[in-house]
Write a structure and sequence with these properties.
homodimer; 510 residues; alpha/beta; Rossmann fold; Thiol Ester Dehydrase, Chain A; 8-stranded mixed beta sheet; 16 helices; 39% helix; globular
């Protein structure tokens, strides 16, 4: 793996995509949602439509994937010629059909039309870069950058240099892909299929044997993999468990190719009868497992959940995700001039917030309050400073009122008002509502204390954060005081019960 | 897949394990934590020790995996002979070394010593059941039940019948494995390696090729898999994405065995130089990625996170987990006679509750309150009744006070007192503290409203739940009223600031 660089500064201004389709569309979605302008050349009549589908799926997936604010979307520009697509861009990504001659011609033409030193990358699933470079005038900046479907979610991109590729081009490309949230993996030698596809092909081949021989149906093959080793491989991989030299040596000696089942390496005959069989099994699979969303959406929801799970462990693809979010945070727009409006935080109700009653669980409201607090803390921290040890607040008290239900996917705004502040204390009032609604779905009042993270004891907040906080408190003091601030839970025996009408708009359950 | 039956009634009273080791130890852990008594026969001097390690890891993993109360652990009984192990058990699980003759003898001996119709299952990774049955007097109840490491976490168990196995034995075994949270998959034909290992072996073989040819190191191979298709396969599998007949046919015709990289099927030479190389790479992997816990613990943490992520989607292995929890819930002990103590809920601080300040995030305290409420609602619902539409409470107001920090893995008790209740309203006070501590880490006061889940409007709670609630409220009225109930958040300008000393024991951050 190449050296890591801070993501934001390696972000390209614009990329040129040669070829849309599933892969090109996925690239378009990843770049655009990372704020990169895209110029797309694809002569197919439905090219734009395909990219729009990928963009729609990607927007949906990203809304679930991260709570961090995404940058403003890059533009999508469908251009008329290859030369138009590669002009004034930092990177050209070719995703044409897998025919060597087509790719050779497109890459050569792209090289001629692009500015010198423009990176020219091919999405090929396995063709050799040295062969693809054959027709290029200047192949030093050409390499393979092979992504995986869905390109906007799966983090891997395999980089493979041809004989005439400059090493510096790999470094530059890796930094760009890392900046858009990917995990670049440099393949050490040119081989057909690179690494991931050769491995995947091996499983796919064996799977077709099992289907041909009626050992298992497609559904059973999928289950056998995803209920067992794919889960383990997706988590920790295979070789880390050997825990070093001795374990690895023993494991290879003891287990590899010792069994009868190690020997099955031919390919099944792929005639019409076999095709009929697997096609029928694929239909049975759909019937057994009807989805209420498209397979692509279901796949994305599951991938999002797994990526988030790995992020909670800061491991593997989860670490890649966490690093991307860190980059996004550093690019998030900051309010420039203070004014007296409450600070605004935008969120979306997440799948994993939903409880057995089909609405956001009570604890997710406190997550939203936490996000509102985060906006205040981010605001007083300011931008671009050393924030490691500054402005750490611990919540000491919270009063939540639930006034309505929230459903998955709803866009939420949290409006946060500073009710008071001094050197150590911060008193906030959050109003949580659906974007555009007048009535809040909940309110949260919180008292926080500034803490020295080293001693974990209360400590006065320092300049210049202190000044920004006091200024914000002064401005917010001009806002009307929320009616319910300072309220306590009333005993149920005091006052009248609420009417049923009120309750339609209330609460969330256990 | 075989028909599903309600898990609890298929739970065996006791199982006999023949062979401990990694697989036998994993079985012991899964059965014991599901409340099943285990009789273990293993002549190895460190047999008990190995099982204890598996049990320790499994306890740790299950505490993170589920918030549902586990049943009291089954007993572990190390016995002196095979006959002792298989007597009075519902299932014998053989996990001896992978030598056909050893297994044949053990299985035959087990069959002779066990009661008639006792299920006798082999954990073999790939030997044919018909061969293993060869020496048995009555092989009708013998089959393969092949699990995956770690047995207590990975849900797959492959069931494979020999020529003399009775179909009814497969049904019975499947029900037992399902009852302990597994996903039984019946292999349709006897083949070496069954399904999952043949597929895994194919990847493992291709991976060693890539390592031999220096295309990628072990680390890179692991990353290539887990950052790309293993993530996708663990989530949705491979064939569901074809979305039926047409897509499958096209995909096979278009993609299968068309590429140069489909053709690499021989095995690398496994001489000493090659062994040295992979051993060295395995060491590099450890150095690059030093863990602060053991690889097994890290693997388990990651698997737990992925399984929980899939549970949030109720899909695949996540559905298996959810079903197991449902079974556990129906078996959870209920308090028999009401008394005046607060209701007690035991939890453990989860990894995914931890925030950037290294302690439980503020919203996790509300999860704990929700668990306390769940205990009250479960209590008044009683046991064994139709609970689908009864006793649904929505929280309308919460007042949380944070008094201390909670760290990952700490055992927590939530003590919940009913402060008041009527037909519609329920007023609770939760005290959250480390098990054994006197001082609370937090308190939560909540007001809830009973709701008709169909209309989502407030509705009076019905008999007999109403009576149980009123009785509980009457008993809890004898408890002292919590000092801070009815409190509100004080303005920061009123009264003196807390001392630094207090703050050591306070709060949690953003």
């Amino acid at each position: 793996m190449l050296q890591k660089s801070p993501p934001a500064e390696n972000l390209p201004r614009a990329v040129g995509l040669v070829g849309g389709g599933v892969i090109g569309g996925g690239w378009a979605a990843r770049f655009i949602l990372n704020g990169v302008n895209v110029r797309l050349y694809d002569p197919a009549p439905n090219a734009l439509e395909q990219v729009e589908v990928a963009l729609k799926n990607a927007r949906r997936a990203y809304r679930q994937l991260t709570l961090v604010t995404l940058p403003p979307e890059g533009s999508l520009n469908l251009v008329e010629s290859l030369a138009d697509a590669v002009r004034d861009v930092d990177l050209v990504q070719e995703s044409a059909p897998e025919h060597l001659e087509i790719k050779q011609q497109l890459l050569a033409a792209a090289g001629r039309a692009a500015a010198p030193c423009t990176l020219i990358c091919s999405s090929t699933s396995g063709l050799l870069p040295s062969l693809m470079q054959a027709e290029m005038d200047d192949p030093a900046c050409m390499l393979v950058a092979h992504p995986f479907q869905p390109v906007y979610l799966l983090p891997l991109v395999e980089l493979c240099a041809g004989t005439r590729t400059a090493p510096e081009a790999l470094e530059r490309a890796a930094a760009i892909y890392r900046a858009v949230g990917m995990h670049p993996l440099v393949v050490r030698k040119e081989v057909d299929g690179f690494v991931a596809n050769r491995l995947h092909e091996a499983v796919a081949r064996e799977a077709l044997w099992l289907a041909r021989d009626d050992v298992a149906s497609l559904q059973e093959i999928d289950d056998a993999v995803r209920y067992s080793w794919a889960l383990r491989r997706a988590a920790i991989g295979s070789y880390r468990m050997a825990n070093g030299r001795a374990g690895m040596r023993e494991s290879v000696l003891r287990w590899s190719f010792k069994w009868p089942w190690s020997r099955l390496t031919e390919k099944p005959d792929m005639g019409p009868a076999f095709l009929d069989k697997v096609a029928e099994q694929a239909d049975a699979l759909v019937k057994l497992d009807p989805l209420d969303i498209s397979p692509a959406e279901k796949r994305d929801d599951l991938l999002v959940a797994l990526l988030q799970a790995l992020r909670s462990q800061r491991y593997g693809p989860g670490e890649t995700l966490a690093r991307w979010e860190q980059g996004l945070r550093s690019r998030a727009p900051q309010r420039v001039a203070p004014d007296s409006r409450p600070l605004r935080t935008l969120r979306e109700v997440q799948h994993n917030w939903i409880d057995g009653n089909g609405h956001a669980s009570e604890s997710s409201y406190l997550l939203l309050c936490g996000d509102g607090t985060g906006t205040v803390v981010g605001y007083i921290r300011g931008n671009g400073e050393d924030i490691a040890n500054s402005a750490t607040y611990y919540t000491v008290e919270t009063h939540l009122r639930h006034l309505g239900e929230l459903r998955v996917g709803e866009r939420i705004e949290v409006l946060t008002q500073v009710l008071g502040a001094d050197d150590k204390r911060l008193h906030l009032f959050h109003v949580i509502k659906r974007e555009g609604d007048d009535k809040p779905a909940a309110t949260g009042e919180q008292m926080l204390i500034h803490v020295d993270p080293k001693t974990r004891r209360s400590a006065p907040v320092q300049s210049p954060i202190r000044e920004r906080l006091m200024e914000l408190a002064r401005l917010h003091a001009q806002l009307p005081r929320p009616e319910k601030s300072g309220a306590s839970i009333k005993m149920p025996w005091v006052g009248a019960a609420r009417s049923d009408g009120d309750l339609r708009e209330m609460g969330h359950g256990n």
